[in-house]
Predict the structure.
Amino acid sequence: DAGVTQSPTHLIKTRGQHVTLRCSPISGHKSVSWYQQVLGQGPQFIFQYYEKEERGRGNFPDRFSARQFPNYSSELNVNALLLGDSALYLCASSLGQASNEKLFFGSGTQLSVL
Amino acid sequence: AQSVTQLDSQVPVFEEAPVELRCNYSSSVSVYLFWYVQYPNQGLQLLLKYLSGSTLVESINGFEAEFNKSQTSFHLRKPSVHISDTAEYFCAVSSSGGGADGLTFGKGTHLIIQP
């Protein structure tokens, strides 16, 4: 079975631009979460979606938004990019939305903002 | 709010020696505890987790962690490490109260195995 897939793997943008990152969960998983990992830090929670609805949101500005599609894939959108948005963006999927669920992570999208 | 502290950013250990990676957490609510591992050029993988019951949990590759509520710790140990254990190890917590706040991760500890 394919694991969690993310695209693109690398991306370079300039300040003020908009970016869309994509994630396909493991087949059968209905929950997708997004995390931001800045170099030298642990991942930080951005969003959780379950059954196409937002179930949780971390401490990120409104420039960050996401959605989940009927096939459970997901997009993370970031508007008005700042230099500080440069990071590895990780997508994780799980069967359900419970906080004790095992998360399966993708390899991430490395975003560089110049 | 929750926080996780991993005091050691790097831990160098000789092959076949024992190792302990330290993790302390802070939370105003009950939590679940996790260790995730990131091998070179791979995504994060769950190593082990504590949900309830026995405070000692084990992984299939010889790691174990013990939940200590009084010290708010969840240290990871292995009695004898191998070169293949070289990786970044992240401790994480989540609320057991049913909220969807995601995982709160520590900064990670880079385990370096020396031959």
